[in-house]
Amino acid sequence: MSGPLPASAGIAGDGPAGPPRPRRHGRASRGSLVIAAVSTAVFFGALALVVVNAPGWERVQARFLDWEEFFASAPRIVARFEVNVRLFLIAEALILALGLLLAVMRSLPGPVLFPLRLLATIYVDLFRALPGLLVIYVLGLGIPGLRLPGVPNDPFFWGVVALTLLYSAYVSEVYRAGIDSVHPSQTAAARSLGLTQLQALRHVVLPQAVRRVIPPLLNDFIGLQKDTVLVTFIGVVEIFRQSQIRQQATFNYTPLLVTALVFLLVTIPLARLTDWLVSRERDRRDAGTVQASSARSRRGRLLGAFDRRKGT
Amino acid sequence: MSGPDALRVEGLWKSFGDLEVLRGLDLRMAEHEIVCVIGSSGSGKSTLLRCINLTEPIDAGRIVVGDEEITAAGVDVDRIRRRIGIVFQAYNLFPHMSVLDNITLAPRRVLKQPLADAKDRATTLLERFGLAEKRNDFPDRLSGGQQQRVAIVRALAMDPDLLLLDEVTSALDPELVGEVLTVIRDLAHQGMTMLIATHEMAFARDIATRVAFVDGGRVLEEDVPQRIFRQPSEPRTREFLERIIEAGRL
């Protein structure tokens, strides 16, 4: 083989791996910390002044920030969150399974399986295109309206179905991105050992793919958590409905604040967890790169060359 | 060459789009033979190996392994691949599995070996190649040379009739090449039938029972290493070898 390969072997493999990469976070100097604190204080102080001095502030304060009402309404509202949690947990389990099934269907090779791929593609396109509320309405009100014998008319049931249909379409795309991110050489290696296409998928591709997409999956589940309130529109009494009931009885909007706080308390930790997982994954990849960089970059080039249809 | 053919490639054609990579290539190997395929980049060495492993569908010709035509219509591809091991330039270990799991995956899932048996066999092989203490490590903890040796063990665990080695040292840092070549030498002494695409001419001269020079998608010249390296009969072979010598690789 001519020049490039041995030459790059010398450069990539030996000696220190170039200048150290700058860390992405947690490395602010003292000076910049002070600046950040001051600018934050000034910004939010100004914002608070504007709000408090607004002409309607007194009225809004009485309607939205009534502490007495806050503590009076909180117990029942928080207790109702149980419905959202149940909805979320059941739907999430179904979404993970259905999403994976759809992604696998779309990744199957060969002309024979075209109908399966087509079916999965239509499904995903359909439920990503439709507004979620619309699907919830149509399923939650339309199907029970048919009064078919044996078909449940429990709005909670249809809420689970609607959210599962909607979110599995998104989640299948996340899975698929993960499957596509596993290099074809992994499948090639598995197949060369005699594993079938499905075995290669099950034992080699999917374990790597799923690991890589855990952060974006969590991201979708933050969305799902919030969207559990949408089933309120087909008559499920969950946290949002509960706070509305209270609000309509007392003409005070503070119960909505309770609901908002509950979601903040649940969602923000999940968001932090997602970020932490992403950065851990990145650090791990960087650590692996230092050692395997030479081989990996060459592998990329080798297979890239092969993909461009040059035999070696 | 006496004995039955381990491998017979007849009139193999393979093109990628407009690019004809293999143009009627013929090659025969007896059992326990070690044939090194040499030739410049793009001459079709890797493609040949991938065709024999049935990774690439061929356009025309026949490939016979033992007494079975593996390119015949309706042949169970997965069954053929069990008999033919291949080791890639980039190792292609499964990064999410320990060394032991990398090796036992196919014996367990394909050959349906019980876990304990597969582990025993894998451990024996690892010990033989000085990798026993690495068996619970993940691939990214290993050096390139160790990874490639594991990849060889992984192929051997399937007990193949024929082992294909596709430039297995090309991705390695120079000081790691030796340990991999040692493994291959060891296999040669055990009588493993091997078809090796390589740029390591000194190694090929050393280990090969025959060397095949591939040029223009065909085997232009094949002979025992002593002759092909000392007095090649084809001008193209001479040219190629002169370039190699200039590059200091022979």
Report on this structure.
The complex is a heterodimer of chains A (312) and B (250). Chain A has 312 residues and is mainly alpha-helical. Chain A has eleven helices and no strands. Chain A is 79% helix and 0% strand. Chain B has a six-stranded mixed sheet with strand order 6-7-8-3-9-10, sandwiched between helices. In chain B, strands 2-1-4-5 form a four-stranded antiparallel sheet, with helices on one face. In chain B, strand 4 and strand 5 form a beta hairpin. The two termini of chain B are 27 Å apart. The model of chain B has no long low-confidence stretch (mean pLDDT 92). Chains A and B meet through helix 1, helix 8, helix 9 and helix 11 of A and strand 2, helix 1, helix 2, helix 3 and helix 5 of B.
CATH topology of chain B: the name is Rossmann fold
Q: Helix/strand-derived class of chain A? A: mainly alpha
Mean pLDDT of chain A, to the nearest integer, reads: 83
The CATH architecture of chain B? 3-Layer(aba) Sandwich
Question: What is the CATH architecture term of one domain in chain A?
Answer: Orthogonal Bundle
Order of helices and strands of chain B: EEEHEEHEHHHEHEHEEHH
Number of domains of chain B: 1
Oligomer: heterodimer
Count the E strands of chain B: 10
Q: Strand tally of chain A, please?
A: 0
N-end to C-end Cα span of chain B: 27 Å
SS-based class of chain B: alpha/beta
